[in-house]
Design brief:
Elements (H helix, E strand, L loop, with lengths): L2 H12 L25 H10 L2 H5 L18 H19 L3 H10 L8 H11 L6 H12 L10 H8 L10 H24 L10 H7 L3 H16 L9 H19 L8 H17 L6 H5 L7 H10 L3 H12 L8
Helix pairs in contact: 2-5, 4-5, 4-9, 4-11, 5-8, 5-9, 6-13, 8-9, 9-11, 9-12, 10-12, 13-15, 13-16
Amino acid sequence: MTIREQMEEREKKLLSPYAAHSVDSKGRDREEPQCDIRPVYQRDRDRIIHCKAFRRLKNKTQVFLDPKGDHYRTRMSHTLEVSQNARTIAKALRLNEDLVEAIALGHDLGHTPFGHCGERVLDKFLEGGFKHNEQSVRVVEKLEKDGRGLNLTWEVRDGILNHELNLMPSTLEGRVVRLSDKIAYTCSDIEDAIRAKILTEEELPKEYTDILGHTTRERLNTCIHDIIINSEDKDDICLSSDVMDALMGLRKFMFENVYTNPIAKAEEIRAYSLLEQLFDFYMKNTSLLPPWFESRITEEENAARVVCDYIAGMTDQYAVNKFKEYFMPKAWEFD
């Protein structure tokens, strides 16, 4: 018996009957030999960590565009916080931690530069619209490894695709990530907004903080405990109605007072314009796309689709550098 098979046997004994067992995976789009050490979801997690799209997350905006400080969240730190919260919940509920971690680490791979600002730009230009959760699946299925993709299991891709609140993953592990994502960005964005002096703890609505807590630590602790208590021995992942209402109320407050705040979004108009102009430029000059991207323009995938793929993969600074390269005049050089 291989080490992988021993681990799969341990899953049967230790995990909840509601957990997604590795041996029961619906598999990959392309069949491949099993690893002798790692079960399928652990292998998926490793593939995500080692892919280029994951590394780029460290230089993509979470909320604040080009913040002047080292301690503001990036898309990478947000992703790691989601993973940590989700694993804590999964361990307590005896769910499959490898599956939870793979979904969490991959859920934002398709996010654009400049946060949701970039998403709105590409949504305007792409027929059928642009959604970062769908782009994340596209990254792991079609864009990584020069078009070969990562060949992840169905369950991981399902969790990545359905991590938005208006969607529902098929596994409990995916549902853990779905809620962990909302908890992570609501609680952490408050901390960043306080650091940026956009709001103070005292300005947060007491009707919500009296339930959730008055610090980031307290709010995370409340939400994570509440999910565990209300989901134990159930075929579902849920918050109590009081905590869910308070979390959604606080999330709405953040949209009204932080995400659209003129201080937090002072550079967003410029970022929006920058990406608009880059999109228009590449549509008129597809020969300046990297060769692999240019080669993908076919009847099946038109230029707009390919240009969106390219721009969505950019980091904030790479987009700025490309804009300077194409639109800013260069100084004359003399010997």
